[in-house]
Backbone:
């Protein structure tokens, strides 16, 4: 069994509130202030880094953060630059914006910036991300698939992620885009992997003991296939429907917790 997680994560399902109560982003600020260092907003995933970066910089500033730095890695040379790596290594928090998670891994994978990210994480920095920025943290990530479809073979595409979270696959915009079928397919491929589907304006806050608490206005869906008694995934033709028996599904609103190591739900705070 892997260690699951070695640091602190805040993974957001996308479309978090940037006005009003802003529960999730406010919690990010609270966690960062405990670390007494700056926040880096990493905009590599998005095709509009200037606008997206400034929007988050403004929101976090309104919530009381004083030291916020924007970093856009646009190519592999920038990912290899010592000054960019140093900026991440010393950060108290690193925030991945949404966009394309494959862009993140293809530009950062194996680079000095990626090594600095892992160093910061292991040193206690908060690693946060929304939408694609949430999916990218796991060893294996979802990069595509069919929304709102019957679970079936070849309905989801996977790729290596950044490897901060072991034996877990994260999906986002979960209920809003009907992604239960594709997350079930992921668990069918390897029942030991825990599927975590995060709704919009909802987050999981994961501590270094691999226990998370749900934050925000909607729910998180957990799919645990460890006790699956039957699956037909290995014999399916393309587009044929999936059979998956005795799979556990938990739906958790804000305040509920889940222990990733022991696969146990804890009641609300």
Residues:
């Amino acid at each position: 069994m892997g260690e699951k997680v070695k640091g602190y994560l805040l993974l957001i399902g996308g479309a978090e509130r940037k006005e009003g109560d802003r529960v999730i982003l406010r919690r990010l600020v609270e966690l960062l202030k405990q670390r007494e260092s700056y926040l880096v907003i990493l905009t590599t995933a998005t095709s509009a880094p200037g606008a997206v970066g400034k929007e988050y910089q403004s929101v976090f500033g309104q919530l009381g953060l004083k030291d916020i730095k924007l970093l856009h890695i646009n190519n592999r040379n920038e990912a290899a630059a010592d000054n960019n790596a140093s900026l991440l290594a010393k950060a108290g928090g690193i925030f991945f914006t949404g966009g394309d998670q494959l862009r993140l891994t293809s530009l950062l994978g194996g680079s000095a910036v990626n090594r600095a990210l892992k160093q910061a994480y292991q040193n206690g920095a908060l690693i946060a991300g929304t939408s694609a920025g949430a999916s990218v943290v796991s060893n294996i990530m979802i990069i595509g698939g069919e929304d709102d479809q019957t679970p079936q073979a070849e309905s989801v595409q996977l790729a290596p992620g950044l490897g901060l979270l072991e034996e877990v696959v994260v999906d986002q915009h979960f209920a809003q885009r009907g992604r239960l079928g594709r997350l079930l397919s992921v668990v069918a491929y390897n029942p030991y992997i825990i599927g975590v589907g995060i709704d919009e304006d909802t987050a999981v806050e994961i501590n270094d003991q691999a226990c998370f608490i749900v934050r925000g206005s909607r729910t998180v869906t957990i799919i645990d296939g460890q006790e699956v008694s039957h699956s037909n995934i290995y014999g399916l033709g393309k587009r044929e429907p999936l059979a998956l028996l005795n799979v556990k599904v938990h739906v958790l609103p804000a305040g509920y917790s889940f222990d990733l190591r022991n696969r146990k739900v804890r009641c609300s705070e």
About this structure: The chain has one domain: 8-266.
